Amino acid sequence: xxxxxxxxxxxxxxxxxxxxxxxxxxxxxxxxxxxxxxxxxxxxxxxxxxxxxxxxxxxxxxxxxxxxxxxxxxxxxxxxxxxxxxxxxxxxxxxxxxxxxxxxxxxxxxxxxxxxxxxxxxxxxxxxxxxxxxxxxxxxxxxxxxxxxxxxxxxxxxxxxxxxxxxxxxxxxxxxxxxxxxxxxxxxxxxxxxxxxxxxxxxxxxxxxxxxxxxxxxxxxxxxxxxxxxxxxxxxxxxxxxxxxxxxx
Length: 249
Hints:
Layout: E1 2-10, E2 13-18, E3 21-27, H1 32-41, E4 46-51, H2 62-70, E5 75-79, H3 85-93, E6 98-101, H4 103-107, H5 111-119, H6 125-128, E7 129-136, E8 139-142, E9 147-152, H7 153-162, E10 167-172, H8 184-193, E11 198-202, H9 208-216, E12 221-224, H10 226-229, H11 235-245
Parallel strand pairs: 1-4, 1-12, 4-5, 5-6, 6-7, 7-10, 10-11, 11-12
Antiparallel strand pairs: 1-2, 2-3, 7-8, 8-9
């Protein structure tokens, strides 16, 4: 299992939200560029960047983020405000390692089918596209976690699998930003339902013990943000774990 450090951006600042609530924001006195440089200096070569403005249809961050990403040779998993197939292709062609699709896949009934035709013919869907699933009590949320989808969680997973997408980023909203432990029960249910999906866990990781637990249930990787910023997990811990895991990203 691989640890992917997370950088969430709101109004061009590095932040973390609690339970996805834009009114519960913690800002950190560090820039995106500084965080990328810090991770890279410790040997990390894959980072997770989310545009929180874009997630709620505010694209004021987007050019800043694209310009910053173009300057780094780090592998980037990127999400937030990706609303078109052209934007997905633009990001992939610009060198973004993985593009996370969330709201558009839930609100546009033909989007995933059309994306599958466009992307899967170029390469494996799972290598370039990650399906973001943000879950609160097994209800899928979208638009910055402000709206609820009527689609049942497992039905949505099955739909994505049928179209060739099998890497999922699942955020347990109940756990997110609280440092209270990872959503082991939720991830176990997903993996019991579809054992062969490539699952990226997100939300609540507070210690290396949480990392160990996620590793035991065979998630592919996990996203860690607040635990790093607040010193519960060191960048050195991330480096050592990833080196020992010997996992290809």
